[in-house]
Amino acid sequence: MLAFDGVYAEDDDGFIRFHVVGPPSDTEVLRLADRIAHRVKKLILREGLNIDAKHDEQPFLAELYGAAVKGRILSGPFAGRQIVHVGDLENGHGRDVKTSPRCVNVNGVGLHANTAIPAHDRVRLERMCRYMCRPPIALERLKMLSDGSLKYKLKKHWRDGTSHVIFQPLEMMERLAALVPAPRFNLIRYCGVLAPSAAWRRFIIPKEENAETETAICKGGSGKNDLRSRPRRYAWAELLKRVFSVDVLKCDKCAGRMRILCAVNPPAAIRKILECLGLPSRPPPISPALLRCKYGEIVPIPA
User: Fold this and answer.
1) What is the pTM of this model?
2) What is the pLDDT of residue 303?
């Protein structure tokens, strides 16, 4: 959740001003986490969403969720067993867990409220938003072993000393399937003045790409506050630069900016241009697919 470190309020002159508040104390964070844990428990009991419950419409999906929560394998030859843990399990039990300010854990509800970003630090704000929308696993910490199993390195050791977990490919697919959200379920929600139907949203959200956020905005919407709206979509080159940190429009030789001259679509014209530049015009040959029979012999699949 991203939240403002303050509130907006209207003054006597009709201006909407932002009032900064101080960071929460450890006691306030603990009280909030305890309240969330209590409400989640009541919701589970009221809706019958306990682990052993079977969903009428999707029984296999309910079993998948239950197995993921219990840390067990649902299908395959090792069904019912716990996933394989690797680490210092003998000396891990009872180890002290380092706590940070404004970070608590109450009955499985972890609340970390110790990250604050200055108002005009757009780079850190974008980095935080991208971190919150990160994928469920980090590929650089996933490794395939010689027997075909997958070994995943945890970012932090668990309390029992576990540093890695080992999955079979099907077991990894089970865990990933349990993380897929239900249809028509919103993963990103906006509250307060950022909500779509908020009355003050159009006065708070900047309407120009390079417009600076002001501390006071008039509700009249006249004068310098009437700014043009942002483009709805980023260009493809900008998206590649933001996602992969690769500037495809930067020349490797002179570091200047490249521009698109034309788009060539006919295959015959593309082949002539590549041959004129001395570049290969045909794709590399593809080896035929191989089939391993039950006796271990590898034979090519007939076309």
Assistant:
1) 0.58
2) 54
